[in-house]
Amino acid sequence: MTENNFWLKKMEISVSEAEKRTVRNAMNMQETYTAYLIETRSVEHTDGQSVLTDSLWRRYSEFELLRNYLLVYYPHIVVPPLPEKRAEFVWHKLSADNMDPDFVERRRIGLENFLLRVASHPILCRDKIFYLFLTQEGNWKETVNETGFQLKADSRLKALNATFRVKNPDKRFTDLKHYSDELQSVISHLLRVRARVADRLYGVYKVHGNYGRVFSEWSAIEKEMGDGLQSAGHHMDVYASSIDDILEDEEHYADQLKEYLFYAEALRAVCRKHELMQYDLEMAAQDLASKKQQCEELATGTVRTFSLKGMTTKLFGQETPEQREARIKVLEEQINEGEQQLKSKNLEGREFVKNAWADIERFKEQKNRDLKEALISYAVMQISMCKKGIQVWTNAKECFSKM
Amino acid sequence: MDMNSFSPMMPTSPLSMINQVKFEDEPDLKDLFITVDEPESHVTTIETFITYRIITKTSRGEFDSSEFEVRRRYQDFLWLKGKLEEAHPTLIIPPLPEKFIVKGMVERFNDDFIETRRKALHTFLNRIADHPTLTFNEDFKVFLTAQAWELSSHKKQGPGLLSRMGQTVRAVASSMRGVKNRPEEFMEMHNFIETFSQKINLIDKISQRIYKEEREYFDEMKEYGPIYILWSASEEELELVDTLKGVASCIDKCCKATEKRMSGLSEALLPVVHEYVLYSEMLMGVMKRRDQIQAELDSKVEALTYKKADIDLLTEEIGKLEDKVECANNALKADWERWKQNMQNDIKSAFTDMAEENIHYYEQ
């Protein structure tokens, strides 16, 4: 819809709140889910003030619906991923419960990120269904389903088949697929180990907290050492509790990595679509070639390949010239059709490759930028953690030396 | 564990100890320097055991020469300790490392175990040398100077097994009777020791736990760095590759720093804390013995009030015992003060060092 071209650039989208809701579902059972408030504000050009234009509540499943729709209608685009459905790569302190407030908060941020990425994509932001997602609360689901997009989706089986059988996929896509496999495996490994490291670090800090307790009990019986012990104990407590904030910040880093983990899947989806189209093309070409051959055989009367028809004619007698003429005519029509189809498929295929590759280049730049930023902010986090550590231990050292 | 030759707590040669003393302004100059090193394993048909080399340098007149080198095994240390306890029942004798650690040890002759024990034995002898009374003990001198056969013949002298058993029986009997009136200050001491023992045990456990957690953290970190390198291999854009490699190398540095922190912990803090755990056990023993002596006195006094006969004899005995109690109490008090001062200093410097280590760790 072209009328939405520019307005989205001036919109601010935010997912500002999350709320627990309980309803009775179709089977008359109580169901609890979390709903998220999406607010859109238009930014007035003149004075930079923003005015609330729309606000509505959506739940996670509706986001999923939107994304599935986008996947079907824009197969050449690397569609931004949603935050994870269930908490994975947890370390022991975080609960894997979907209702846990920390998890809900991080999901809220992830959903906002998703909407912002879609809104800033030059092609996706123009989609009408996306616009309605942000503005039309009721009936949106029906509207989406009416587009019949689910029927247009390629079956998983078909796609798998194509992946194995395709003969000549574009090399760039094959390489891209390898890259996305590698990316996925390296990031998931990294996240797993990071979770374990976080666990251990938590342990180290927390055990120091025990010092605090024992020191203060001990200081009760000491005369000269008492004060020093007491205040040192206090610092141990500070040290032990500092880990909570540190690890929460690290979760943010983990989330950034997770987004690219899921992006790898989106990349693979584009590759799969290419393979499917290519396979289709190859099948159509093959079909056409065999029909042409058949036609030729009928016309010249030579049977070069074994065929059932050939056998039956040998057994039951030749067919009449009229019959043969009729068949040739049918075949010629089919061949014509086939050639048309092949031409259009070729065109489609090339269009697809061109558009997809353009988006992939865009994605690559985005990815490099984002990852660099994420790594740098991770390093900054570590530095700040160390600075805090230095401070606490310097204080503790002072206390110890006063004992 | 590498032998830390520059650890402030354990100088490894008498020469370096002399130097150290010159820097610290000690009012009484040390004239007895002892080191324990070179554990060696000896195999006989009956058993396998470890001996440690003990080098003594001294300027004291009563020693025949100024340098001695002998080899001793753990049993010899046990003997020495026993003799010291006998001679000075209410003095605070330094603790010996345990016979063998039950948990986590596969065999007695594990390298770490031997090293830990060697350090503790070194500390043991040096503490005796520093003690104003114990350092002049005859058995101590024999221990430091006698050759192997001399030592075994010396050991055979002294009260035999039976009489020692008799002493033990009497001791148990009197402790059963209980102490009726413990003087106020010893009551305080007793309470202090109880609480202290509790707390120091806890601290020992906590410190061990921290060490364990840090080790596990280190193990995980070792895996973490290489993943970034692996990732950098899949990426094309140079800046991203460099950033990833940079993160990996920082993680490696963190690993090294963690290692250093751990070794600092095990060199300085853990042995000291552990020694004081043993000390607290010792102290309980000392308190008991003091109580025993007092109990003996009390019972004799009681006997006096009931048995008018043999008054003279009893009075004499009581007199002796009172003296004994007096001595014991005084010895204990004096020693107590010393010990506390030492403990404070030790714990203080141990924790300060730990704090230093942590600071260095974070700076890296």
UniProtKB/TrEMBL annotation, chain A:
Q: Does the keyword Transport apply?
A: yes
SMART domains recorded: PX
List the coiled-coil residues: none
User: Where does the source fall among the domains of life?
Assistant: Eukaryota
User: Which InterPro entries is this protein grouped with?
Assistant: AH/BAR_dom_sf, PX_dom, PX_dom_sf, PX_SNX4, SNX4, SNX4_BAR
Ranges for domain PX come to 14-140
UniProt entry keywords in alphabetical sequence: Protein transport, Transport
Claim: Transport is one of the keywords in the record: yes
Give the family from UniProt: Belongs to the sorting nexin family.
> What name has this protein been given in UniProt?
Sorting nexin-4
Which lineage is the organism of this entry classified under, starting from the top rank? Eukaryota, Metazoa, Chordata, Craniata, Vertebrata
Q: Which gene encodes it?
A: SNX4
From TrEMBL, chain B:
Q: Which family does it belong to?
A: Belongs to the sorting nexin family.
Q: Where in the cell is it found?
A: Early endosome membrane
* Lipid bilayer topology: Peripheral membrane protein
The PX domain is annotated at 30-151
| Protein species of origin | Galeopterus variegatus (Malayan flying lemur)
* Gene designation: SNX7
Its recorded name reads Sorting nexin-7
Q: Which SMART domains match?
A: PX
Quaternary data = Heterodimer; heterodimerizes with SNX4.
**Alphabetized UniProt keyword annotations:** Protein transport, Transport
A Pfam family of this chain: PX
Q: Which PROSITE patterns match?
A: PX
